[in-house]
Design brief:
CATH architecture of the largest domain: 3-Layer(aba) Sandwich
Structural class: alpha/beta
Distance between the termini: 56 Å
Shape: globular
Radius of gyration: 21 Å
Largest sheet: 7 strands, mixed
Number of strands: 13
Number of helices: 11
Low-confidence stretches: none
Mean pLDDT: 95
CATH topology of the largest domain: Aspartate Aminotransferase, domain 2
CATH class of the largest domain: Alpha Beta
């Protein structure tokens, strides 16, 4: 007879992903989304309400009779054509090779788009940078019998970026057939752009290495001195042939259009690769919601899209500058001040003990109803095969995704905590 108190069922224990764990811990202390007395400086979504300079929020969608039926696995022809036109307009004006509907695969959110890519990869070595987006670890974990993940640790002296020349060397030395990274980068707030991004794409093309670029923060871009950038960042302008260059670009409405609840994401790349990804959907998800795709058509209307993303850069640059100024005044330093996303990747090693430890900082801030994300969560380690302690115990990701007033309240509380008031 068993005396164990463990539940008797066939499910394995599934740990919370880093940011979800933070929310779970906060909920034990009374946090709920939208609670006016909580400051979520750990959140991975932008503010979703009305914003100065932006068009009114889309609050309705008129569905058609066919929207009640199953849709194509890779998305409707109508939305895929609109997304292709969106990329051509922003990034490929005057170029011979243009994206078409066949170059787009729509999914129910960015994680699902990435999940399809991981499911479609063959028996290959896949490089990835660390620190990077926490969900990559779970995606790798599901395919460790087929994929061999190989970490490339970004260096502080490079601003936690992997230069194109270094990537080229790693591809040769480690036999990488694919490389995955977020650019703009979550959590570091840094971005590869211009000639360096062009060199990255050229490396993928020349070495026949599939480059998976998670570009979900493509429109959150700022100048080094904290002004709104003139436009978004993508590898799309550097692709020579949209059907031959082995580059997959992942984006959606979640971040840059501030509609995370719609769960509309997409991948753009060679048509034959989009067909493969759509086939993986038959066993993973069955295809995206036709209703959400119908709403997405309005969000991507050129005038509305440009107004939204331009306003976004203006308002988030303002919040970026506030975060940087306030944290640096507390003795919290940046390897490189953020030039993208809505995150600051900052080091606590200048703070007095025990606040120089990110987990202690997190727990103390939580008592003040402020959420942050300890840096160790971004040390992507599939299968926990690396046994050494994570090297980011003094690093923290701070989000400036919340509305300005809430951000200010959170920074005020952190100041009181650090100053010992």
């Amino acid at each position: 007879m068993t005396t164990t108190k463990e539940p008797q069922h066939a499910l394995r224990d599934v740990p919370f992903m880093g940011v979800i764990w933070v929310v779970h811990e906060a909920s034990k202390l009374g946090f709920t989304n939208g609670h006016p007395d909580w400051c979520n400086l750990g959140q991975g979504q932008p503010e979703v309400g009305p914003m100065e300079g932006a068009p009114p929020r889309i609050d309705s969608v008129e569905i058609k009779p066919e929207d009640h039926a199953y849709g194509p696995l890779g998305g409707t022809e109508e939305l895929r054509s609109v997304i292709a036109a969106h990329y051509n307009r922003l990034y490929r004006t005057g170029q011979r090779s243009q994206y078409k509907a066949a170059n787009v695969c729509v999914a129910q959110g960015g994680r699902l788009a990435l999940t399809r890519i991981f499911a479609a990869l063959g028996h290959v070595n896949v490089g990835y940078q660390v620190p990077d987006y926490t969900a990559y670890e779970d995606m790798f974990d599901l395919h460790l019998s087929r994929l061999t993940p190989i970490p490339i640790r970004a260096r502080e002296e490079d601003g936690f970026l992997v230069p194109a020349a270094r990537l080229a060397s790693e591809i040769d030395e480690r036999g990488l057939s694919a490389f995955v990274l977020s650019n703009p980068c979550n959590p570091t707030g840094n971005v590869i752009q211009g000639p360096e991004l062009g060199a990255l794409v050229k490396t993928a093309r020349d070495k026949h290495t599939t480059l998976v670029l998670d570009e979900f923060y493509s429109h959150f871009v700022y100048t080094p001195d904290g002004k709104p950038a003139s436009g978004p960042v993508s590898a799309a302008p550097f692709i020579e042939d949209v059907d031959r260059d082995p580059v997959l670009l992942v984006d959606g409405l979640t971040k840059s259009f501030r509609y995370p609840g719609w769960r509309v994401g997409w991948t753009v790349g060679p048509a034959h690769m989009m067909e493969t990804m759509a086939r993986t959907a038959s066993s993973i998800d069955g295809g995206p919601s036709r209703i959400a795709q119908r709403a997405a058509l309005k969000a991507l209307e050129p005038a509305r899209a440009d107004q939204e993303t331009q306003a976004l850069r203006v308002q988030f640059a303002r919040k970026r500058n506030l975060l940087v100024e306030r944290l640096e005044a507390l003795g919290i330093r940046f390897a490189a001040r953020p030039t993208s996303t809505f995150y600051g990747w900052a080091c606590l090693d200048g703070l007095p003990e025990p606040l120089n430890d990110s987990m202690t900082f997190f727990r103390r801030a939580l008592e003040l109803k402020v959420m942050t994300v300890p840096g160790d969560f971004f040390d992507v380690n599939p299968g926990k095969r690396r046994r050494a302690p994570a090297p980011y115990s003094s690093w923290m990701r701070f989000s400036f995704g919340p509305p300005l007033a809430n951000l200010e309240m959170g920074l005020d509380r952190l100041e009181r905590m650090v100053r010992g008031r």
